[in-house]
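Q: My collaborator sent me two sequences in one message, no labels, and asked for predicted structures for both. Can we handle them in order? The first one she listed is below.
A: Yes, handling them in the order given. First sequence, followed by its structure tokens:
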Amino acid sequence: MAISFPQENTGFNIARLKYNGGGDWYNDPSAEVNLLNFIKQNTNIKVDARYQFVDISSEEIFSHPFIFMTGHGNVVFSGDEVERLRLYLENGGFLYIDDDYGLDKAIRREMRKVFPVRDFVELPFSYGLYNILFNFENGPPKTHKHDSKPPQGFGIFVNNRLSVYYTYESNPSDGWADERVHNDPPAKREEALEFGTNIVVWALSQ
């Protein structure tokens, strides 16, 4: 199955993934809009800078080259959703997951359903995503404190392509949100937006 991504004509958009399980998949809706506007200002990527979400169980998921998932709590994928997400990722789709604090246990459990024989692997700081446009020589930035652990970036590869990227103890998507939401200083927000741009550029360039 070849997935068609019509956004080539309308502009690149990031689709927020709506999932079941009780986690707040919908938090900070300004995040993607701000990131897309930053991408427009700093790259030649044509964007559609609006908030949009997609239900994991819908056919619409196959119209988005890049989906974004975040939250604080539980995640539950049904059997059909597991199959749909696997099909999406195996046919060129990209999923970025940002742990907004409390998501780690659930997302690791559910992604094992999607790829039982593929584990998350930590990406070395030399990996291309970290320097494709803006340089992050120490890997993911530390946007929010959480448990004061070092930030980490993990990936799942399908046919040697990074199909899933997951940030833990980093939380850059909070830095994309409107300044009044988390009161992050301008430098921290700029860093988060630069890092988000790297993720998008890497996903689209593979």
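Q: And the one she listed second?
A: Here it is, processed independently of the first:
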Amino acid sequence: MTSQDFEYLRRLLKERSGLALAADKQYLLETRLLPVARRVGAANLSELVQKLRAPGAEKLATDVVEAMMTNETFFFRDKIPFELFRDTIMPALREARASRRRIRIWCAAASSGQEPYSLAMILKEMSGSLAGWRVDILATDLSTEMLEKAKTGVYSQFEVQRGLPIHFLLKYFTQVGDMWQIAADLRAMVEFRPLNLLHPFSHLGAFDVVFCRNVLIYFDQPTKMDVLARIARVTEPDGYLVLGAAETVVGLTDVFKPCDDRRGLYRPCAPASAPRLRLAQPAAADATPVAVVP
């Protein structure tokens, strides 16, 4: 692979996914993209780049981007964010949303679904205190392949052993051959949609809670600032943002502020000049509260 080919692939990934690939990561391209090259009859990455430059290569470009994505995820990853969701975020929102009895949650970069399903299990456990409430979970990801896997809710023995408490496995999953499938009512609690965080997402509406964990670390600073500014505009003024353990807004942006003694938890503090979407009240036809947590 020539230096020109390497720079072409770097630009492609940056423009389409936000991935800022360092100059010393050529080996990563070779590791992840050689299988893609072989599938389309290219002997090496230089030939792959030739195919990408040719007309009608949109599908190939999508395959290249998806092959470079890090889809590492597991149930209840890092534990603390889910404890904060259960013990801090949800109690505060139940009090703040008592009049409208509706909460919207967005899991950005949801990969194969373990994060939103972890939240769904927590909500299911809290169903007694959420009777008559409508709680929506929207999960988005750049990779359509990961989203299709997430929709099925089917996971290997290895995947369910990573972070998932055994009593949740027995309570919420059914064994199908050597795989495990999460219960249908939990699958119904999560809506999966394709979304690129580099593209506009105001059409999604406003959210009370946004989980955007372990994705900003792959962006350069201007991209991080842009994404955070746009997340702030779709987060309710008294809502919450949850970032990954290695991520922070400190020294990066002033649209969010950290919550004291709550690692990874942030509240909006955007200036008045930055308009924010507001969560609309349900229309008259939806006036009867819907319990999404049976």
